[in-house]
Amino acid sequence: MPSAAASSERGWLAPAIAVVAAVTGLRLVALAFNRTDLFVDEAQYWFWGQNFDFGYYSKPPLIGWLLRAVTDLAGSDAPFWVRMPGAVLHGVTALILAALAARLADARVALWTAAIYVTLPFVALGSLLISTDTVMAPFYAGALLFFVRAGQGGRAGDAFAAGICAGAAFMAKYAAVYLIPGAVLAVLVAPALRPGWRNALLMALGFGLVIAPNVAWNLTHDLTTVEHTMDNVGWVRTGANVRPGAMAEFLASQFIVFGPLTMAAFLWGLVRARTAALRALAVFAVPPLAVVLVQSLLGKAYANWAVATYFAGTVLAVWVMGARWRWMALAVNLLVAVALPVLTVLAPWPEVKGQTLLHRYLGRTAMSEQILALARAEGLPVLSDNRDVLADLFYTGRDSGVPIYAARPDGRPEHYYAQNFALPAGFSGKLLLIATAPVDCGTGPVPPAGVLNGTGTWAGKGLTPYVIEAECLDAAD
Fold first, then answer.
1. Domain limits of the chain?
2. What Rg value do the Cα atoms of the chain yield, rounded?
């Protein structure tokens, strides 16, 4: 296996930085003109940052901490600043993976790794919408790089840094746990990467120190995020429903997530992984994809659930590509990388069958502003059991002075707002209830308090305001 020879690392860094900086800069310019609203998850992550904790309902805490830091430093909670870290973090990830490629392969593979990664479809999307995948990315890549450095050089500092990076990745998204089976398999297929027992313990120590606050938080909060993860897995609670078609659909979606030619190269690389370095990349990449493939067979699986595959997977794919293949993959990726930000700038155009293409990302702010205006006019707090409504109300209404409550949960809370911002027990007085079904307090239907004009994601959803007494909630139940 190649060592960290200077000859393999020279010549890639400056052009890689230039490519990544150019792509990232253009993305930030487009983001400044982005006309979409924060998606429900983005608004939720921002809100987490306003309520510092070592864990949250559905995810570990790093994304909330990051967004709080960025928006505080910027002095603004505008959508641009909430989303801005995405493009920057993926740019950093591209350079870290290039450094990994330089150590394992050569300068040419390193430069191409940076160029291919920064233009991948999931990276293009992750540079427009902030997500836990994006926050995990540079730390996951850093764990891979320092693991290889520790194996090649045996330095304790690299081993400890690998553990710290792995822990930070875990604090962004629990999918970082795939690094553990990847590392175990890597030392089996690539003996030159064995870090030794001392360094393995240092990796474990660094990892444990970073994740300890979140582990403690879960243990003192009824294993909230573990319970949510079990809900997502689904078949663990309700039993398996074997669906080969769903698994085939998930696999097909990966050609969109990773790019068709890049995915084909990755699969070819798994077959052609005959050197120790290629095998190491393969075994780091395979566990996430294999686990989620099984999940897609037995239950539901979203297209982004196997993103952890494509950090080591990018280096593997680029390494086995020929020159022409790389250029074609880059060209295909660029089509998506350009089209996505252009669509956000042109929104609400274009329309498909009478509906704007990006309808899921439009109409949220407008709906919240209508609800908040009505609440101020009535002098009432707002109540809803709809997570999407609540997420944007807390974001859009951050300076409105309007109290916002989630409906009290019946049993285990179904989302963060019901867990932490439910209507207090014993609350009395009137409320502005936002619902999609008629309300009856026991004396007949309550008349609507107005009309909400739903556009974008809310078009045709029937969101309606009702003024009710708090006691009505008990009657409705």
1. 6-35+78-346, 363-476
2. 24
Tokens of 339: 């089209």
Distance CA 159, CA 190 (A): 17
Q: How would you class 5 by CB atoms within 10 Å of its CB: exposed for 0-12, middle for 13-18, buried for 19 or more?
A: exposed
- Give the H/E segment covering residue 469: strand 464-469
Which among 391, 382, 383 is positioned nearest to 364, based on CA atoms? 391
pLDDT in tens, 158-194: 999 999 999 999 999 999 999 999 999 999 999 999 9
Q: Please name the residue that has the structure tokens 């052609």.
A: 272
What is the Cα–Cα distance from 273 to 336, expressed in whole angstroms? 29
The pTM is what?
A: 0.95
Provide the residue type at 412 as one letter: R
439: Cα separation from own chain's centroid: 36
Angle at 448 between CA 447 and CA 453, to 5 degrees: 160
How confident is the model over 278-337, as pLDDT tens digits? 999 999 999 999 999 999 999 889 999 999 999 999 999 999 999 999 999 999 999 999
Separation of alpha carbons 370 and 386, rounded Å: 16
